[in-house]
Amino acid sequence: MGPDDEIDHAGPVPPYRQLAAILAARIKRGDWHPDRAIPSEAQLVGTYGLARATVRRAIALLVEQDVVYVVPQRGTFVRGR
């Protein structure tokens, strides 16, 4: 998945994994810098046409992979390199 891909709702890869791959690719490309916020859950829901639960699951996967971290009441931030 590239950073400019769209979610394929009919494809074999679950949408949350597709979104996680897209966000990780955008981080790697440098769209968002370390310790800077990525778009909010609401923005990602609107951009990709996904349910909030799907976006949360994608973010949780990126947290597990140590790509981002969540600050309660502040947002999701890119983990420093």
UniProtKB/TrEMBL annotation:
The lineage of its organism: Bacteria, Bacillati, Actinomycetota, Actinomycetes, Micromonosporales. The keyword Nucleotide-binding does not apply. InterPro entries: Bact_HTH_transcr_reg (IPR050679), Tscrpt_reg_HTH_GntR (IPR000524), WH-like_DNA-bd_sf (IPR036388), WH_DNA-bd_sf (IPR036390). Keywords: DNA-binding, Transcription, Transcription regulation. This is HTH gntR-type domain-containing protein. Residues 13-81 form the HTH gntR-type domain. The keyword Glycosyltransferase does not apply. It comes from Plantactinospora endophytica.
